[in-house]
Design a protein that fits this description.
The protein is an alpha+beta fold and about 100 residues long. The chain contains 3 helices and 4 strands. It starts with a strand and ends with a helix.
Length: about 100
């Protein structure tokens, strides 16, 4: 089986404890699976379990350990090799100034 890397734009679900502090983010997933469709299904299940809704898939590709130098990415890749899935969520905080400009 291959390791698929997915970068997915997401937003917190209303019942997510972080929904008051963050407006969105990217979930980077490494999934050990046979095809991109099942990789996406696994990433969606992970996101839902963590309280996030997927908005758009930014990237999906087969990777190997030579693709990474960042320790966090290497750790997630290795976790996917062992248990089937490794992930990192990068969230951005609410920006009150930006919210005001949207209301104007």
């Amino acid at each position: 089986m291959d390791i698929y890397y997915l970068m997915i734009e997401s937003m917190p679900l209303p019942d997510n404890d972080e929904s008051q502090e963050v407006t969105g983010g990217f979930i980077n997933c490494w999934v050990k699976t046979a095809n991109p469709e099942s990789a996406l299904q696994a990433a969606e299940a992970y996101a839902a379990n963590e309280g996030w809704r997927l908005i758009r898939v930014e990237e999906i590709k087969i990777v190997n350990n030579e693709n990474y130098q960042d320790p966090d990415a290497i750790e997630c890749y290795e976790e996917a090799k062992k248990s089937g899935l490794g992930a990192i969520i990068y969230a951005w905080e609410n920006d009150p100034a930006q919210d005001k400009s949207r209301l104007s």
